[in-house]
């Protein structure tokens, strides 16, 4: 009974320790709410200690960290690996893949959807943009980014060719990355619960 109470208390305190979670749909059009291009929402303002939870809602997508100046080029930072969601699942299906990262400060962070292609068409996510580096300017930089595949002659849908040429990650990478993040979260949870239990 005592143990149950302690666990309950520590579970109740956990959200205070870990801050808010910012759920961002990937492969979901933020204007239509349907499966589509980019991030929903495409701009967020988390605080230090908050979590970004990328929920992959359609097709093949990956979230890759870039820079304000070069929105469509990975900077060697965060990379979720390619996440694949069956076409038969709805945009709000339960159990879609989620990858979380903790925000460590309020410096701007810039991301794009590498596997989904279409970065230059606006598949970008601005985290804590500033008054000089705005989300709109980030999107403009993305629109000017050099194409990652031979430019198509039409303005039409070239997503499939882009997607296949910009998804180099082997199929083992996503689950490994997710697992690693999961392990880190698990370790942190364990450590904090332990601390709280000790204090009670
Ligand atoms: C915050 O720090 C952790 C631990 O160093 C790191 O894994 C994570 O990627 C960082 N978050 C961001 C958004 O850079």
UniProtKB/TrEMBL annotation:
Keywords attached to this entry: Signal
UniProt keyword Signal, yes or no: yes
Matching SUPFAM superfamilies: Cupredoxins
Region Disordered, residue ranges: 139-177
InterPro entries, A to Z: Cupredoxin, Ser-rich/MCO-related
Alphabetized Gene3D superfamilies for the sequence: Cupredoxins - blue copper proteins
Record field: transmembrane: none
Record's protein name: GPI-anchored cupredoxin
Biological source species: Hypsizygus marmoreus (White beech mushroom)
Source species taxonomy: Eukaryota, Fungi, Dikarya, Basidiomycota, Agaricomycotina
